[in-house]
Amino acid sequence: MPNVLNNNSDQTDNLNVADGTAIPPLGSRGVIRVFAPATVANVVCGFDVLGFAVNEPGDEVEMRLTDTPGVVIKRITGDNGKLPLDAAKNTVSASVQHYLHHVNRLDVGVEIELHKKMPIGSGLGSSSASTVAGLFAINKLMGDLLTPKELVPFAMKGEELACGYGHADNVAPAILGGFVLVRSYEPLDVISLPTPAGMYAAIVYPEVDVPTKDARQMIRSKVFLKDAVTQWGNVAGLVSGLFMNDFDLIGRSMKDVLVEPTRSILIPGFEDMRTIAMENGAIGFGISGSGPSVFALAKDEETAKRITKAQQQLLHKLNINSKAYVSSVNAEGPRVM
Ligand code: HSE
After folding, report:
1. Average pLDDT value for residue range 253-280
2. Can you name the CATH fold of 4-193?
3. Residue 29: what pLDDT?
4. Distance between Cα 329 and ligand 1 center (Å)
5. Which has more confidence, 4 or 31?
6. Number of helical H runs and strand E runs in the chain
7. Which atom of ligand 1 is nearest to the CA of 124?
8. Cα of 49 vs its chain's centroid, Å
9. What is the pLDDT of residues 29-81, one digit of tens each?
């Protein structure tokens, strides 16, 4: 297990992962630090069913096994005191606890440090990046008892805790990397999609408050059939465009008639940022997750940088502070640092 630092190899090398009954690495003092990526959920037309991961920003979790059973949050940095240290309320510890329960290892002790490297409540899958980093870390320390796909339901539990609903369109791409389709929730059916070469994401976070819980509550629960027809045509078009490397088809499909018209009202300068993105060569533009971040897909890094720069200039004129991220699509999901 080369990824585990300060590890007593005598014990961990004997992990029997094949039948899920691993010999515990208790007392091994295994320590691991994991990065998990931010994500752009919905990808405009695919509310709750599409998402992709980016290489930056992302969160980091440092995890240590101890002899004292139970999961403890030792420290959180970069959250300005916003996140709970109470292990039952924190999405990272709660999902790790859920994982240990599932693999029947409640005898294991875990200490967690969470290092927030991205804004909270930004629409960039902040809680899922933390949760996924924690789950990836515990799974590594336990000898990869579960596959990445099998971790998705545990991360969804974290989303449920964070915003009241266990959607998978952030956590699945954070775990699997790339573009992901959540074809079905019951039963859960998560499918990795291809990423066209060279694609970049241009993300701008206007620093206004839009909690996911509130942004979900404002959406209509009933839709007109004609709008549903438009929407599923676009979802199918976007998925086809990813398979066909067809940027024009992807762009034509990045239209949302169900959710964006309501949510975009909460985002300052939204329509002007769309105009800026499209005039500067974006493939398509929309809200990242539940907002307030917006994103554009671009054919290359230079185009993406041009878009974020012009959008930030607009927000500056509106007296809104902002952060920008230009990133290629993350292909690997979480990684041991
Ligand atoms: N699909 C979710 C939503 C993503 O739009 O509410 C939240 O980031």
Report:
1. 96
2. Ribosomal Protein S5; domain 2 (3.30.230)
3. 55
4. 19
5. 31
6. 11, 11
7. 8
8. 13
9. 579 999 999 999 999 999 999 999 999 999 999 999 998 999 999 999 999 99
How long is the chain? 337
318 exposure class (CB count in 10 Å sphere: 0-12, 13-18, 19+): exposed
For the chain, which residues make up each domain, given as ranges? 4-193, 200-328
Alpha-helix residue ranges (DSSP H) falling in the chain? 9-12, 91-102, 126-141, 148-163, 171-176, 212-217, 225-244, 247-253, 260-263, 270-279, 301-317
Average pLDDT score over the chain: 90
Q: Does 260 qualify as catalytic in the annotation?
A: no
Query: What is the value of pTM for the model shown?
Result: 0.90
234 lines ligand 1 (CB under 6 A): no
Rounding to the nearest 10 degrees, give the CA dihedral for residues 235, 238, 241, 245: -140
Cα angle for residues 8, 64, 28 (degrees, 5° grid): 20
Cα of 120 vs its chain's centroid, Å: 12
The strand pairing partners of 61, in sequence order, are 34, 114
- Please state which CATH number belongs to domain 200-328: 3.30.70.890
- Other CB atoms closer than 10 Å to residue 75's CB: what's the count? 11
Torsion over CA: 177, 178, 184, 187 (sign): negative
Q: Is the CB of 288 under 6 A from ligand 1?
A: no
Contact in structure between 39 and 289 (CB atoms under 8 Å): yes
Pairing of strands 109-115, 70-77: parallel
Q: How far is the CA of 55 from the centre of ligand 1 (A)?
A: 19
